[in-house]
Here is the input.
Amino acid sequence: MRTPCATCELRASCSTARKESRLPHHSPEKRPFDIDLAIVRLRDAVQPFPKAALFELAEAGFHSPFEVLVACLISIRTRDEVTLPCARRLFALARTPVTMSQLTLDDIDRAIRACTFHDVKARQIHDIAARLTTAYGGILPCDAELLQSFRGVGPKCAHLVLGIACHQPYIGVDIHVYRVTNRWGYVQGRTPEHTMRALEAVLPQQYWVEINRLLVPFGKHICTGTWPRCSTCAVGDMCQQVGVARHR
Here is the structure.
């Protein structure tokens, strides 16, 4: 039987070390996840970054249910840096269902042309405005079932409208809320919808709206999809780093 040479043993040792260096480090000293403490820390951590688009628009006065819904539709598959000017250009033309329904499809499309699927979204926005004008007196009620009856409106946009504009306790789960809360190990959800239901079971209700406001900038700038900044994370001592292979 051959005895491994020193060079072979060294190579095997180095290979093992390289593999281990790529694995996430889960310290046995991690503290249990304390959501109240995490929220306090996150409020400070996101201060230097731009606000999530829908919350920024609401703070600027575009906070009616219809305006938040329109802004959310524009934001789908679109970066906040594009969503904000698109929404502002459109709201400079119309801010209510009645005035929006009076615009042509080309008017709407030109205003939001920089966002993804702008032509589809222009039709959706115009159709929603027309339906609200004829069937609901030009007002969008704070009704989850009605919101999700509109083409292109899913739970995320419906819940953000209800939370931001209607001040009702709903969780808006976008890609950042989905990724970050699962990475923490706070919930285990296979999809955004599963994650939403899991969060409804464990997240204190006073944070249901705020969780989106905090985790959008946190997910964009700190807990990023690839190479998250774990070494400077405000909740790193509690995060289980689920699925993190490499980090900064």
Observations:
- Residues 142 and 232 are 40 Å apart (CA to CA).
